Amino acid sequence: MSDLTLGRAGVDRDRLLRLLQDYGVYAGVAVLLLANIAFTPHFLSTENFRTQAVQVAPVLIVALGMALAIGSEGVDLSVGSVMALATSVISLYLGYGPLIAVVAALVGGALVGVANGALVAFIGVQPIVATLALMVAGRGLALVLLPQLKDVRDPGLRSLGTGDVLGVPYLVLIAAALALLVAFVVRRTTFGRQLLAIGDSRPAAQLAGLPVRRVLILVYVASGVLAAIAGVLATARLTASDPTSLGSLMELSAITAVVVGGTPLTGGRVRIGGTVAGAVLIQLLTATLIKHDLPPSWTQIAQAVVIVLAVYAARERGKR
Fold first, then answer.
1. Domain residue ranges in the chain
2. pTM: predicted TM-score of the whole model, two decimal places
3. How many helices, marked H, and strands, marked E, lie in the chain?
4. pLDDT(28) > 60
5. How far apart are CA 182 and CA 226, in angstroms?
6. φ, ψ at 150 (rounded to 5°)
7. Which range among 7-16, 56-65, 175-184, 233-242 shows the weakest confidence by mean pLDDT?
8. Which is it for the CA torsion 164, 93, 76, 141, positive or negative?
9. In which region does residue 150 sit, left (phi positive, over 0), alpha (psi from -120 to 50) or beta (all else)?
């Protein structure tokens, strides 16, 4: 085989990997949609699309915060525990009114973010270790505050999970608004540019005089608040506070959505559109397996396979 042929093969392979990383998630969503339309009964019903959109909303909101953390060359494993903490705080403060309860839950998420950011930015703990510690501590604190499931009877909070505008659920509208907001912050603000610069090279960002510590703390605060919002919305939808199971393995779904969406684990880049598509892909994959009577454990296996493929594509592209 000639050098020219080998060169062309290498170029074609590199191009294929680039297309897979940039557009693979959209192709995956399209394939799953077509497969479900063809083989899943009643998939095209309005009620089914409403259900899928409501279920993907919390995953997407958490994934937005995860995208910021990964874009800074970090990760936030505490997001599921923050959701559990939020649902416990809501039950504790709901007697003071739904607004006070929601604000208290968001403050709790922000405090976890401050702790994560301080460990990473000031003490120098690796993000995976720092957020793992808060993952364990946050779930434990949530169970201390609320040891068991508790019904949520407040009509104002329950309407947040069941209400809609012109048929579009509040949860979907909130998730869409937050996605637009995070996309604007990443692309159009100084904070977004600083975040990407830090993710690309933290030493270079420090030498350039960027406020690295402040930006990192804000990144983890944003991730914590977004996870708390997801916890609030999930509580409103379920009409119950369950710190034992709420947010369980959410970090896996969020990381999958972000990585599959094209945001590299090496940082320096955040793809919000890809993250949205990644969250939709995970939801469609889960729904497909459930509708075809496969056990829930297959969903986790499928997510793991998707992550490996996405990371492999990014790794191979990074070599070139």
1. 64-253
2. 0.90
3. 13, 4
4. yes
5. 10
6. -140, 130
7. 7-16
8. negative
9. beta
